[in-house]
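Good morning N.,

You mentioned wanting to compare the apo and holo forms, so I went ahead and generated the holo version with adenosine monophosphate. This is what I fed in:
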Amino acid sequence: MSVFTKIITGEIPSYKVAENDDFVAFLDINPNAKGHTLVVPKKEENKIFNLSRVDYQKLMDFSYTVAKALEKAVPCKRVGMSVIGLEVPHVHVHLVPLNEMADIQFSQKVKLTDFEFRALAKSIAVKF
Ligand code: AMP
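and this is what came out, ligand included:
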């Protein structure tokens, strides 16, 4: 069971920003930049291009909604998107508020307190 499935089942906590029947979005615990969010299908699948075309499109559509909310809540030049999956083998889309190229390079990290994570999640939160 992946660490993200554990988040989905509530076994481990997360700073959730959006959820529907098929997807969940929560803040990355080791963010590249303030507001770095992960969008995850609830059904555990390893690689993004193993998803069916329809599930892939649904994931992109949900990510679009979350990115819009993120762009409104977190001042940035634009929201960047990346898919990696080398650390957690459960499909996820990284949405990262960008101000400079380093924000999407996964080397420079930002430290946030529990209070800051909570406030951020609340400010991004998507209502369906
Ligand atoms: P990757 O699989 O390379 O796309 O990276 C996995 C991402 O998941 C990294 O950015 C981690 O910081 C993030 N991550 C790992 N565990 C957690 C967790 N429990 N809650 C939130 N984000 C996590």
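The domain at 3-124 is CATH 3.30.428.10 (HIT family, subunit A).

Happy to go through it together on a call whenever suits you.

Best,
F.
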